From TrEMBL:
Residues 138-157 are annotated as: Disordered. This is NudC domain-containing protein 2. One of its GO terms (biological process) is protein folding. The keyword Phosphoprotein applies. Keywords: Acetylation, Centromere, Chromosome, Cytoplasm, Cytoskeleton, Kinetochore, Phosphoprotein. GO terms for cellular component: centrosome; cytoplasm; kinetochore; spindle pole. The gene is Nudcd2. Its main location: nucleus. Interacts with LIS1.
Amino acid sequence: MSSPFEERSGVVPCGTPWGRWYQTLEEVFIEVRVPPGTRAKDVRCSLQSRHIALAVRGQELLQGKLFDSTVTDEGTWTLEDRQLIRIVLMKTNRDAGNCWTSLLENEYAADPWVQDQMQRKLTLERFQRENPGFDFSGAEISGNYSKGGPDFSSLEK
């Protein structure tokens, strides 16, 4: 079985003061740097459909209303190497036109260039899904790719 699209094509990260976030068609990934030696019992993480809260050793690192809704019972967090918290959220709306422009409603927005790169990547990921025999991971795209690109589903094969 081939590796997932994002592993072959890389990610388009949006840097933040605490780490970074990035997205695929289906998921939003959040990576938060924490003090070395952090233990799982030091972490308090609440993942809800439209809200996130993360605190380490009583210090709030991330909290607010998410840009869009997620599937509450499919969100997870892990502590890696006792210095990185990785949160994975499953998007409710999983089409290429649903490119989050920011992690929270009014915070951690991607700058215009990063936003453009995120939208390009999600459009290519959509094309990959629609055409599983082709590898789009190294492809470039130009033209109309905003909102997921053109819809070819009505064309005859």
